[in-house]
Amino acid sequence: MDLQSILNKLFANAHAVGIEGVFQFVFGQGSAFWSEVGQSSRVGAGTHASPDVTIEVAERDFLGIMAGTANVEELFASARLKISGNMGLATLLPQIIDSARQGVAANKVAMNQRYPTPARFSERISAAQPVQHEVPRVRRAEMSVERFRRDYLPQGLPLVISDALQDWPLFTMGRMASLEHFAELQGITRHGDYVKKTFSTDRDFRSTSMAEFIASLERPLKPGETPPYMGNNIVPEKLLALIRFPDYFERSRFIAPRIWIGPKGTLTPLHRDDTDNLFAQVWGEKSFILAAPHHRPALGTWSTSPEGGLDGCDFNPNAPDYQQFPAAREVPLLRVVLQAGDLLFLPEGWFHQVESLSTSLSVNFWVNSARGW
To answer: Are residues 88 and 19 in contact, defined by beta-carbon separation less than 8 angstroms?
Structure first.
C-alpha cells in the first residue's frame, strides 16, 4: 500500500472525534503528503500552503507506526519524529493512529466540548466504604503484594507507600545525574494559563528539548506568570532500565510509564482518570488533594467525551465556592504530600488535584487493573 493510501486510511474517521485541520507529513526530501480533516477528509501529494501540523518522520518509522511495531510517542521523545505547528492538535495524533489501526470509528465528539459525566462502578464501591479522612502511609517493607491486593486494591482505597524507590537507579543517582539522562530527549511542555484551559487542546503546548527545558527550571518567573510544565511525556524504552515497575500489578497490565518535570507552582486542577495510578515521586515534593469517587455530583464534574473517561471539575478545593457548589461542604478532602521516594496508589475514580511544592521529577504508571470498574 502506498503512503497516500495509508494516510487516507489514517484520517478517514478522524472527524468522528471532532478533529479538524490540516496534517502534513514530510518523509524526506521530495516526499510529502497532506491530509485535510473535516466533515470529510482528503489527501494530496506535495506540501500544503498552510498546514496546521507538520510531522517530519522517516518513511520506515511511519510504516512501523501504522504496523504497530513503532510507538509515535517513543519516536517523538528520541527526536526521530519532529512536530511543528499546532501542538494541541498534534497531541491527538496517537488517538487518531489507534482508531485507524483498530478500524473502529468512534462516536462523534466535539473538540474541547464538555459533556455530562456518567456514573462509574467505582462510585458504588467508594460509597460503601467507611468515610476516609486521611491517606494511610505504610513503609514498602510492610506492604506486601498480598496485603496490597487484599486490603487496598479491591476496596479502591488510596495509599502512600514510603521508601518505595530504593531500587530505582533514577532515584539513587540523584537529581543532576537523573536530569542528564533525559537531556537529549524532546517533550511537550505546557505554557500560559494551562490551568483554566485544563484538558483542552487550546492550551499553549510547545515541542521543547529536555535540555532547554531543564535549563529553564530555575528561571525566575515574572509576576502573574504560570510556570511551564513538562507533563505526561512517555518514558523512552532506553530509559526504562532506570525505573522499576511496582510489583503490585502484573507487568502486562501496565500502560507505558510517563514522566512529569516541573518547577514549584505547577498545578493540575481537580480531575479523575479512568485507570488505577501508581505515582512515584523521584525527587522534590508534590501535594495531592483527593476526593472519593462517589462525591462526583458535588464537585461540578464534566467529561471530555460522552462516555466519560477523563473527567474535570469546576470546584476548586483551594478556593471553594460553596454558593455555587453547596454540596461540596460535605465532601471530605484528603490532603497528602509526597516526598522523594514515595509511591502513591491512586485508585480509578478518585478525584485529585496535584501541585508541585518544589522543582520535582515524577514517574507514574497507569494500570488496567481489570476489576470491572
So the answer is: no
AA identity, residue 273: D
Contact criterion met (CB below 8 Å) for 186 and 300: no
Helix, strand, coil percentages for the chain (3-state, nearest 5): 25, 30, 45
At residue 325's C-alpha, the angle toward residues 322 and 328, to 5°, is 80
- What pLDDT does residue 106 have? 47
CATH 3.30.1050.10 fits 3-102, yes or no: yes
pLDDT at 197 over 80: no
What CATH code would you report for 121-367? 2.60.120.650
β-sheet bridge partners, residue 334: 290
User: The C-alpha cell of 199 is what?
Assistant: 484538558
What distance in Å separates the CA atoms of residue 199 and residue 89, rounded to the nearest whole number?
12
- Give the residue-averaged pLDDT of 18-35: 89
State which H helix or E strand residue 159 sits in. Answer: strand 159-162
- Is this model's pTM higher than 0.85 or not? yes
